[in-house]
Amino acid sequence: MPNKSEVLLLSEEDVISTGLTMSQCMELVEEVLRARANGQTLSPPKVFLDMRLNSEHQCDADAMPAYVKYIDMCGLKWIGANWENRYKRGLPNVIGIVILNDPESFVPLAIMSANWLTAMRTGAATGLAVRELAGKGSKILSIIGTGYEAKFQLMAINEVVKLDEVRVFDIDRDAMESFLRDADQTFSVNIIPCKGVKEAVDGADLVVTVTSSRIPVLGEDFVPDTAKLICSIGTYNELGDKIVGWFDKIVVDTREQAKSEGALADWFARGLISNGDIYAELGEILVGRKKGRVSEDEKILCVLTGLGCEDVVVANRVYRIAKERGLGKTFRFF
């Protein structure tokens, strides 16, 4: 590497303008999950910082470092949330950045906005899970939570399943109306707004929960009647205890992190599930070490809490494209 420290700074607009497609993002995420299953990445569990514990700040954050050997790149995603940002400050509720570093000298190579990037790679992981775990002939999707990431979930699932109908629900009516306006311009599938969770999931083949709820939004009072796959996305406790008796097996993106983040963490803490209840990591299924769906009757719970290695590979591609196209601004670090 040259003995200089020129850092590329990429805004959210710069990152989006690289034009990375969901199909390309799914290829990147699949490659890195396969690599992780074969020991070619270092991607430790998130470090969680909750500033609400000893301050008046309503903000929490995750630090997600990773090294990916086959692209020889290391980096960190630093992402936090304050759910009052939008209406109090006119800012996104979630704000993230990725820092890419040269793994030999640790000189920073790029600092980029990571909101769109996170939504893309999160959707990509769900798309891969649906491809491997959904039942044949799945046609009806239910999405619970219609915030920023919901559109990307639908984008990815639409890559792998021919949907007839999408049912959506959010307690925030403005968020649902915004999603519907955007989706009507983006997708050709029939999208139906629902008045509650039960209405949204009854009759669905696939259910995706993508909320910021700290209390269960599904499985508290009832379980889906027809769904054969539930995907819970992110770091929050979205699932009620009735789901414990619903699933035949659990698939995660990372066993270790599932104990402390996301929908399974509370169940682990209360002894409702144990290590033996985790059937496989998604990467193990992608490399063929474990089978995905083995019967059409099987009910599968898939919990994806997100990995730093996913962010690093997508950020690396964004960085390369941006350099080729002259996007962003550069500055000397030293």
UniProtKB/TrEMBL annotation:
InterPro entries: NAD(P)-bd_dom_sf, ODC_Mu_crystall, ODC_N. It comes from the Archaea. Pfam families: OCD_Mu_crystall. One of its GO terms (cellular component) is cytoplasm. This is Ornithine cyclodeaminase.
